[in-house]
Amino acid sequence: MAESVKAAKKVYLLEQAKGLEKQLRALISVFQRIKKGARALIVSASKKSDENQIAAVRKQLSL
Question: How big, in percent rounded to 5, are the helix, strand and coil portions of the chain?
């Protein structure tokens, strides 16, 4: 009887672990998308900053 209870607990824990693994993989996927989006925003912001710096230099040169 005790062996069957132990076996049932192992099966239950394995199923729980599989569910947690799926959730973890989904979270990793979400964080990778967020990271990719953040990189794109940083690149966009740096380009905008560069454009603003170029405009400022042009303005100074025209004075």
Answer: 95, 0, 5
Instruction: Express each pLDDT in 12-46 by its tens digit.
Output: 999 999 999 999 999 999 999 999 998 888 888 88
Give the DSSP per-residue string, 29-58: HHHHHHHHHHHHHHHHHHHHHHHHHHHHHH
Residue with tokens 């199923």: 15
Rounded Cα–Cα distance for residues 30 and 59 (Å): 43
Tell me which DSSP letter residue 19 carries.
H
Q: CA torsion 22→23→27→29, rounded to 10°?
A: 20
- Residue boundaries of the structural domains of the chain: 1-62
Model pLDDT, residue 63: 64
